[in-house]
Amino acid sequence: MAEEKNQKPASTPEQPDLEAHSDDNKTENNETTEKITRYKKQAARSFVLAFTTLIAIIAVCIAWFVSNTKVTMTGTSISAENTVPFELASAGERQKPELSQGKLSEGSNENNYSNYIDYKTGTTYPLNGKTLYTGSSSLAWRLNGQQKFYPGASGELEFYFIPKQDGLKKITFQINLTGYKEGNGNNLSLVENHVWENLIQGHILIFTGLDANNTKGYSGWLGEINESSNELINELTINASDIKNSASDTAVFEKNMPYKVILYWKWPKEFRNYVYNDRTGKGDLFTDTSEADYKKLLKFVNAQVPANEAYGAKNTSKLFYSAKTYSSGFSGAENSIDINMSDEIFESCTNYYNLADEYIGKNAQYIYVELNAEQ
């Protein structure tokens, strides 16, 4: 994290003053302009963040487990007929915060799977003795090591889906992020805070791809905005016909064969990471600003700029936060954020993005990551 020289750390950041560019204080104006120009490519923060480290609580759920369980009559008795089309599976470690709550299923490891199929390539690989923990409801998500969320952090979410019926052609996954805070004893309480819920949607991004050398950046951002509710949905649909090596549009998933999926999450450390393309030096998300993935995310970023003070007062942005109403210095940024944005817009966005990071950390200690699947 780059910081200005002689900067004094602040435990509580002040509201950014966006009126510094006034005619009444030209000296301050010149100094501020020079400062922005000098540090623009470094994205210096205006304060030291004081948030609490967020620890992932990972869980896997199956949406169809309830809706697709039928009741059938057999003679004089009634029994439940399990029609779950898929099971989910994961391998590795359970997350310690999740395990301490004792709410989720360990899953079954009594299976004889020896191979899996990569959902992107259609290639079959050996599991080499890896144990898969399978289930169809409230299954704990095992990962490769313990994962934590904080600005600048990134990681992988690996899981498998296993078709349990013949003729299945499609599966859709949705990932939800929920906040929890520490309560009495070992209990956690749900964060029921719409501001927090909005901000976490834009600060933790989930992708389907990351180049092997980690130099070109991310691809396949899952985020889609529901225009009517302004909710951001992280959703992935996998069709059997889309998997490479599939014969035709009539292709189906292979029954009882695990299909491996890896998703990549990232909490951008700086606002600049969404917009600029210096991946090697500054950790920006992309290197090619002509790609559709970059343009999609940039459109989302521009849509999060408050158009007026009333918007800011409601704090409905998924990227920026203000304890007060947004300063008039932020107006005019709508649809103006790109790699050639002005220094004033860059500084405004950076300040409000940093405030959002701190708000997220101060209002939750844990993030519950839930994967729902449906046919």
Automatic annotation (TrEMBL):
The chain crosses the membrane at residues 47-66. Residues 1-34 are annotated as: Disordered. Keywords: Membrane, Transmembrane, Transmembrane helix. Residues 18-34 have a biased composition (Basic and acidic residues). It comes from the Bacteria. This is Uncharacterized protein.
